Amino acid sequence: MTTPRVNADGHPAPAGPAGVPPTVPQGVPTAGPPPPFAPRHAAIPAATQDRTRQFTADVGALKLRAPKSMLDTQLMWLGVGLMLVGIVMGIGAYFMSHGTTLILTQNDAITLGLSAIPVSLLGFALFIRYSLSTFMRFWLARLIAAQQTPQATVAGPGTDATAVLPTTPAGH
């Protein structure tokens, strides 16, 4: 069984003689050489570079605690581990209490199951705190940058804010 051939548009390609490669129809652009490499910094206007420098200086002046990314990552994974340990403790306590008829063993299982709850909650708290810390730093920086950008220059005085939104050509 052969797979059907398709052209660049996704339509079935006309069947040709076996062993003859398909040709490109007339009017279809072919891939040319890649565009020359342009450095990213060359396209940034000077006004944007000045604003970036000013923003960097303002964030530096906030005197925020520098992120200890290695410690933050380790504490986040410790939180994940504690959540998993708490779940395993709870499941183990369930099977321990249902696997015996001795009251003392069942009481130990109840104690183990109840101690699994704070272990899981501690793990959850560590995970949430250290996984969101990096996100919140970037969010704060974005919020500061948005507050420093004057809205009158973006939309222009007396214009509707939706007028500056880019439009998408029909068919895209």
Describe the structure in your own words.
The chain is mainly α and 172 residues long. 56% of the residues lie in helices and 0% in strands. It has 4 helices and no strands. Helix 2 (69-98) runs antiparallel to helix 3. The chain starts with 45 loop residues before the first helix and ends in a 17-residue tail after the last helix.
Q: Share of helix among residues? A: 55-70%
Order of helices and strands: HHHH
- How far the N terminus sits from the C terminus, by CA atoms, comes to 36 Å
How many beta-strand segments?
Answer: 0
**How much β-strand is present in the residues?**
under 5%
Total of helices? 4
Overall pLDDT confidence: 75
Unreliable residue runs: none
Rg calculated over all Cα atoms: 31 Å
Major beta-sheet overview: none
Shape: flat
Structural category is mainly alpha
